[in-house]
Amino acid sequence: MGGRTTRQRRAVLRELAGCQDFVSAQELHTLLVTGDHSIGLTTVYRALRELEADGGVDVVRDETGGRLFLLRPSDGHRHYLICRCCSRSRPVDAEVVEQWAASVAADTGYVAVEHTVELTGLCAECRPATGDQEGEPELSCHWKPDHRDDPDHRGRASFSPNSRCVPLPAGQDTGAT
């Protein structure tokens, strides 16, 4: 992470590394504060901005246009399919997208081309159980409307044991650069 590596910034990185799904800066701040870290929301935003500039996080937009963050794996950025209901995310194979972006850059003579591809849908847990699937199904999320504020479900879409944000031991390396 660029800039000074402070205790607070290391805490942001550790907490973010424990999240398997995208989280907002506010959600990350809440996780840190409830985890007994003394840190301001501005510091969380600053750390996330630096991680983004360094290529350390993947960023997507939520339904209101807010930015959500996920620690980028060491092998580079990924594309994700995100549930519009619970926000659970999963990486998808997008080699064809990478090839297309490289081809467009080569064909046009542009350099340093960046791209954003966002795929959304309803996960198996949130999709309608029955009914007509011809058109876009009506959102019928079975999670209570305030599920994102439930302290038992840390972070966005943390509804199963294998998708929870989990604290990492203080000395554990996150692998982010």
What does this molecule look like?
The structure is a single chain. The chain is α+β, with helices and mostly antiparallel strands and 177 residues long. Helices cover 27% and strands 14% of the residues. It has four helices and six strands. The strands form two sheets. The chain has a three-stranded antiparallel sheet with strand order 1-3-2. A three-stranded mixed sheet has the order 5-4-6, with no helix packed on it. Helix 1 packs across helix 2 and helix 1 crosses helix 3.
Q: How much β-strand is present in the residues?
A: 5-15%
Query: Strand order, biggest sheet?
Result: 1-3-2
Biggest sheet layout: 3 strands, antiparallel
Catalogue the unreliable spans: 143-177
Number of DSSP E strands = 6
Arithmetic mean pLDDT: 75
- The radius of gyration computed from the alpha-carbon positions, rounded to a whole number of angstroms, is 18 Å
Structural class: alpha+beta
Distance between the termini: 6 Å
Shape: flat
Number of helices: 4
Set down the secondary structure blueprint.
Layout (H helix, E strand, L loop, with lengths): L6 H11 L5 E2 H10 L6 H13 L3 E5 L5 E5 L7 E5 L5 E4 L2 H14 L10 E3 L56
Parallel strand pairs: 4-6
Antiparallel strand pairs: 1-3, 2-3, 4-5
